[in-house]
Design goal:
Length: 294
């Protein structure tokens, strides 16, 4: 009788650097192999998963490496995680606050498009990978909204998972008066003790592209499986956002309320180990991607 250890996949992480026009994207490509033929085999080739971080996040924050390892091992599908150009992270923790200050949703959509294009052509910068013809997207917080918006624009996306996602980009309207007065909005980072500046680019982008950046409108247009994962005790994004996304996505959507789950599902940075809430979110994600891309 074969055990779980017999069918576990070996996951390999390979860093890459992709430089589309006006951006510098640092990422990791995780691929897996099954050690026992016929057991735990990868799904049909041509699939790839892309994981997107949120506001004040980055690919190596807290749970992201564990999440990506689990997705690659348990689905057998290659997984890409990367830092958005406007994440503020290049070589170390928030070492480019100028880029952070000028990030926009449109810029994130362009960054994600560059990643998907690279996967489709089989080249992420200097890294050659197996070309992908269909994608699964997973985004946390603001990254969840970016994934929904991109899924509405690219037919190769076959499944979306959101974690603690915002349901609208208009939350940035709360800073409008300060930006209109010529101020730079400062967001304190309690962990790093940095004052993180935000220029009005995000507001200008939102106002100029309201229809294209309509998260719920994009969710309503989707004809693919969507799993909406949200902690019931999320202190940053209310659970009502999850209900709005799931309602908009309709019959193909599944709402997973993680009981007592926080915005990061009880995980922190540096990562001190997994939690029951985080594992529930991962389980729901594996189920969706296995079903939609397997």
């Amino acid at each position: 009788m074969k055990t779980h250890e017999d069918t576990m996949r070996t996951v390999t992480r390979t860093p890459f650097r992709l430089r589309p026009p006006g951006a510098d994207l640092r990422g990791d490509y995780r691929s897996s192999t099954a050690p026992v033929e016929g057991e735990g085999a990868s799904p049909a080739g041509g699939a790839a998963l892309v994981v997107c971080h949120g506001f004040k996040g980055f690919k190596d924050w807290g749970f992201f490496p564990h999440l990506c390892e689990q997705l690659a091992e348990r689905t057998g599908i290659p997984v890409v995680s990367f830092n958005f150009d406007g994440s503020g992270v290049r070589d170390s923790d928030f070492d480019d606050l100028e880029a952070f200050s000028r990030n926009t949703f449109s810029r994130e959509l362009q960054d994600l498009e560059a990643i998907l294009d690279g996967l489709a052509t089989g080249r992420l910068g200097d890294l050659e990978v197996t070309p992908a013809t269909r994608f699964g997207l997973l985004g946390h917080s603001r990254g969840g909204a970016t994934c929904i918006l991109k899924a509405g624009l690219r037919s190769q996306v076959r499944g979306v998972v959101t974690w603690a996602s915002i349901s609208s980009v208009t939350r940035y309207e709360s800073f409008a008066d300060r930006w209109d007065a010529g101020e730079t909005v400062i967001i304190p980072n309690a962990r790093t003790k940095q004052d993180m500046p935000l220029e009005r680019n995000v507001l200008d982008d939102m106002r100029a592209n309201r229809e294209r950046l309509d998260v719920l409108g994009s969710a309503a247009s989707l004809r693919i499986p969507v799993t909406v994962v949200h902690g019931t005790a999320d202190e940053s994004v209310p659970f009502s956002d999850a209900r709005r996304i799931a309602d908009a996505a309709g019959d193909l959507a599944r709402l997973v309320g993680v009981e007592g789950g926080t915005h990061t599902f009880q995980a922190g940075h540096p990562f001190a180990g997994t939690t029951p809430e985080l594992e529930e979110a991962i389980d729901a994600s594996v189920e969706l991607f296995t079903r939609a891309l397997g």
